[in-house]
């Protein structure tokens, strides 16, 4: 490869009375040269430059901090892909044995930005909603608790159930409100056309890794606990519900970023209300991807 | 004290303490909806622009209507007492309850008139 980026191919010459055999032979030699040169250049390019997105940095627990752009491009600026997920909603808690829904998922946002080595970006990774408690000894039903908002360099994605539109809370993946109708969680942009269940398909998808994300926690009715909406690939997602009957109950937490927690339902036993605690929503996450620079 | 994010007079999110003050960590738009609140305030509380309340207060007229409905729903017991079908002893707690409802109606109406 020459400095100007062109391939150094030596023109071949033929004798005045060349035969087709000689011509084909020289053509073959040249083709081999071109093939070898291209192979070298491909190796040269792909050896240091990744054409796809590669994960550079991630934060999958709640917190805050400053991300500083590393020097990946000989001191020059480069492009990063940022993917934000907000905290999932907790599961609800009910000690009357009536039933309560699981937590719905957070939302996601993706964008590209140019950074220069040394640039600092403030970030906050939203916490999952903390599961509420319907206390031992008194009748109570507690609704799911919203997740925390996630932000990177001022660009924000609202936590599960934080933002409202027309008085309705907004989620990435929503499930049914009624645990007596359907208890199991749903995952990855699951949608039913009658609007009973609605997931924002593009929101429940990581465009950098091509993976479906975000699931709801399982809901619970009397003695019946739904399972969380989980990824069929990883098996992770929304937390399962817990409805053991006349004893204390605790919903399971969401175990993939932004997913909802499972519901908890207990029942009155010997005239005493048993404790029920909803499963925590999963914390949000921040991912930074790069391509076209050395990593 | 804690920071909370408020829209439509409702606490939507309790800001985690690792993200204080919100103006430093979040964008300007989000931070403009964050205010300081007492420690006991939780998600879902109502904010009237000055005070935080666990629930949105019921308008006086709405409460008056509720109390009048309660009186109406127990009128039959007053009639039964007047016709001698309930003893004075049995009717006493009902009478006391109905009087409490009337007193509350009167207080709310006075409050309404005071506002006007």
State the helicity of chain B in percent bands: 40-55%
- Summarize the main sheet of chain B: 3 strands, antiparallel
Our count of helices of chain A gives 1
**Class from helix and strand fractions of chain A:** mainly beta
| Topology of chain B as a string of helices (H) and strands (E) | EEHHEEEHH
- Let me know the number of strands of chain A: 22
3D architecture notes:
The complex is a heterodimer of chains A (295) and B (116). Chain A has 295 residues and is mainly beta. Chain A has one helix and 22 strands. Helices cover 10% and strands 26% of the residues of chain A. In chain B, the strands form two sheets. Chain B has a three-stranded antiparallel β-sheet with strand order 2-1-3, with no helix packed on it. Chain B has a two-stranded antiparallel ribbon with strand order 4-5. At the A-B interface, strand 7 of A face helix 2 of B.
Topology (SSEs and partners):
The complex is a heterodimer of chains A (295) and B (116).
Chain A: H1 20-48, E1 54-59, E2 63-68, E3 78-85, E4 93-94, E5 99-100, E6 108-115, E7 120-125, E8 133-134, E9 141-142, E10 150-152, E11 155-157, E12 164-165, E13 168-169, E14 205-206, E15 211-212, E16 220-221, E17 224-225, E18 242-245, E19 249-250, E20 264-266, E21 276-277, E22 285-290
Chain B: E1 2-7, E2 10-14, H1 22-25, H2 28-31, E3 34-37, E4 46-47, E5 52-53, H3 60-82, H4 88-115
Antiparallel strand pairs in B: 1-2, 1-3, 4-5
């Amino acid at each position: 490869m020459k400095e100007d980026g062109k391939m150094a191919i030596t023109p071949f010459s033929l004798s005045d009375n060349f035969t087709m055999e000689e011509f084909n032979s020289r053509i073959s030699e040249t083709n081999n040269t071109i093939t070898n040169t291209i192979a070298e250049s491909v190796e040269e390019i792909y050896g240091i430059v990744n054409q796809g997105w590669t994960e550079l940095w991630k934060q999958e627990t709640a917190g805050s901090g400053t991300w500083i752009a590393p020097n990946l491009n000989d001191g020059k600026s480069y492009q990063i892909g940022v993917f934000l997920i907000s905290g999932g909603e907790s599961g609800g808690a009910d000690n009357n044995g009536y039933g309560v829904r699981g937590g719905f998922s957070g939302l996601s946002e993706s964008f590209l930005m140019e950074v220069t080595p040394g640039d600092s970006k403030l970030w906050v990774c939203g916490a999952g909603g903390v599961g509420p408690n319907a206390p031992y000894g008194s009748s109570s039903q507690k609704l799911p608790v919203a997740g925390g908002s996630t932000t990177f360099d001022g660009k924000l994605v609202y936590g599960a159930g934080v933002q409202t539109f027309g008085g309705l809370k907004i989620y990435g993946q929503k499930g049914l409100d009624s645990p007596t109708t359907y208890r199991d969680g749903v995952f990855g942009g699951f949608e039913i056309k009658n609007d009973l269940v609605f997931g924002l398909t593009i929101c429940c998808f990581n465009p950098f890794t091509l993976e479906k994300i975000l699931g709801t926690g399982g809901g619970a009715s009397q003695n019946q606990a739904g399972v969380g909406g989980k990824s069929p690939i990883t098996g992770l997602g929304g937390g399962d519900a817990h409805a053991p009957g006349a004893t204390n109950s605790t919903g399971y937490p969401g175990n993939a970023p932004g997913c909802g927690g499972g519901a908890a339902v207990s029942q009155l036993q010997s005239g005493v209300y048993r404790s029920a605690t909803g499963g925590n929503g999963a914390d949000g996450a921040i991912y930074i991807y790069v391509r076209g620079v050395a990593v | 004290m804690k920071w909370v994010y408020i829209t439509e007079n409702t606490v939507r999110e309790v800001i985690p303490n690792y993200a204080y003050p919100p103006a430093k960590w979040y964008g300007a738009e989000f931070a403009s909806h964050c205010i300081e609140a007492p420690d006991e305030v939780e998600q879902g509380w109502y904010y009237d622009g000055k005070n935080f309340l666990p629930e949105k207060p019921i308008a006086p007229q709405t409460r008056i209507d509720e109390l009048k409905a309660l009186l109406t729903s127990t009128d039959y017991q007053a009639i039964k007492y007047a016709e001698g079908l309930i003893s004075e002893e049995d009717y006493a707690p009902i009478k006391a309850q109905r009087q409490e409802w009337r007193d509350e109606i009167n207080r709310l109406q006075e409050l309404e008139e005071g506002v006007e």
